Amino acid sequence: MVSSLLKMVEECIPIEKLTLESKNSAITARVSRLWDSYRFHDEKDLLSTDMVLIDKQGSYIHASIKGSISHLFKKRIAEGSVYYIKNFNVVPNKAQYRVVGDNKLMIQLYPTTVVRSLSEDSLGIPTFAIPNHRFYLLDFDKVESRMGETYILTDVVGQVCCEGEVINKNCRGNSVPSLMLELHDLRAEKVRVTLWGESVDNYMRQKSMLENGIIVGVFTSTLVKRYMNNAVLSSTSATKIYLDLDIDEVIALKKKSSSSAREHIIQPLIIEQQEELD
């Protein structure tokens, strides 16, 4: 059994080699991000379960499972784990709200898609060589250029310098918590991001676990909107938040801020008017 699986893994192709003509292909990849997409924050209306997959070459791709068959994979896929995946469909990437904006393709899983968990201990496969994360980080001074763009979602990294209060907002009949943060980057450029729903809980939970006063985070898959004549980021159902991640961009920001005691203090964010959720 082990030898047969090893043989299958060895026959996998890199993500970057996938094409629209790829049939019966197999890949070995880590589930870097995993989330459920709902219609208008209604957890009774699941549109899809989505993932960002990364292989050992560092290539990444968006993978999606239709909501109607998502239950078939719920107990078989976990964020951070590595899998052998075969029998999927390669399709053009979305025309709107791309999570992996620099890949023209994405993949869709079927009920018959083979998904097998890979363990280095049991198979001798160097899964540690597969990156945990890959982001398409946008500089703060380029955020405004994405104003109104819907073809791609935006990833940023920044230090939290100001924080508002958690406020419940009414969104299409649902009460949704919101929280606005102000981030700054290495060049002291600033941008605000509004977190909604689960993103608020995710941020607050991670923040409570940090011992260091400096909070640097990666905020993925946000939309750029206009608020008070400024470009602001707004979380989506695909947004994932990673505080104190061990990547070069986070380390550089923490190093810069550690030289000043004032940089450790998160200031209250004064908001004249709350942003409405579209």
Automatic annotation (TrEMBL):
Gene3D superfamilies: Nucleic acid-binding proteins. Residues 24-116 form the Replication protein A 70 kDa DNA-binding subunit B/D first OB fold domain. It holds the Pfam family DUF223. Transmembrane segments: none annotated. PANTHER family: OS03G0429900 PROTEIN. This is Replication protein A 70 kDa DNA-binding subunit B/D first OB fold domain-containing protein. It comes from Cuscuta campestris. The lineage of its organism: Eukaryota, Viridiplantae, Streptophyta, Embryophyta, Tracheophyta.
